[in-house]
Amino acid sequence: MKELRYEVLKWATDLLTAHHRDANIGELLLQARLGLTRTDLITGLREPIASKDAEWLRRSVEEHVYKGTPLQYMLGRAPFYGRSFKVNADVLIPRQETEELVWRVGEWAKRYAPDLDHPAVCDIGTGSGAIAVTLGLEHPDWRITAVDLSEKALDVARENADDLGAQIVFCQGDLLCPLIHQPFDILVSNPPYITEQEMGGLDDTVRDYEPHLALYGGNDGLDCYRKIIADMPLIFSGRSVFIAAFEIGATQGNAVADLIRRAFPNQIEALSIEKDISGHDRNIMVVLQTKQG
């Protein structure tokens, strides 16, 4: 007699809960396996499940429970801003919090540079390309360039851009180095910002799987911010306004804001530490009045 969906899901939930994992993982895996919405899955809980699907679910749940393999890497996909992106162990898994950075870039561009025609935008540390591709699709008149140190990450980003129909220029290199003396109006970056101390305390699903190159930001987590902020004047477009938007760790707002204040003491038109939906500091937004040459 065939197992029913609810029976194998109960097994998954019990195992996940017993090992302090997210109890919803079983549902999410089975939705993806069967190509169902959550509503369809729930309304069909008493439907029989094929033995090959039940076996796959058990293997996948055990892999997550005992090895910590992230759900998104098992499925090879992650949602971001209403779209599905390819992910693998060469790139960070896009986070919901980063969607807020993408939204704020658009809002600040409308507020502080409404007349900016076809702005040139760079995404520094693009990873899967989630930020760059989303900006390109949400703002078709923006000219987007995305940079990453990892060629393997860029391969994933290029595939996502192709799959989703975004026109992005990709560059391999360290932060702003490949862009020096190219003109840009907007900079966006979710750089590595995990501190030395925090690295050891990361959840195993992150620590053991996601690329450390995209996580570790130096002893205090600020190494990449220092480099990017120091080099920003080298990519100013020559137009009057430059907008920069950063994702930050929850305790880094004042420190990153101070780096910007020290670097541009007389050029700041607006500077804000923005909180995420959970109430944690998550973005630094700055508008600079650039010097006219």
How would you characterize the overall build of this protein?
The protein has two domains: 5-67; 89-289, Rossmann fold, CATH 3.40.50. The chain contains twelve helices and nine strands. It has helices spanning 5-18, 25-34, 38-43, 51-67, 71-75, 96-112, 130-138, 151-164, 196-200, 204-207, 223-231, 253-263, and strands at 77-80, 83-86, 120-124, 143-148, 168-172, 186-189, 241-247, 268-275, 281-289. The chain has a seven-stranded mixed sheet, with helices on both faces. A two-stranded antiparallel ribbon has the order 1-2. Helix 1 packs antiparallel against helix 2. The radius of gyration is 21 Å and the shape is elongated. The N and C termini lie far apart (79 Å). The model has no long low-confidence stretch (mean pLDDT 90).
Protein topology:
Elements (H helix, E strand, L loop, with lengths): L4 H14 L6 H10 L3 H6 L7 H17 L3 H5 L1 E4 L2 E4 L9 H17 L7 E5 L5 H9 L4 E6 L2 H14 L3 E5 L13 E4 L6 H5 L3 H4 L15 H9 L9 E7 L5 H11 L4 E8 L5 E9 L4
Parallel strand pairs: 3-4, 3-6, 4-5, 6-7
Antiparallel strand pairs: 1-2, 7-9, 8-9
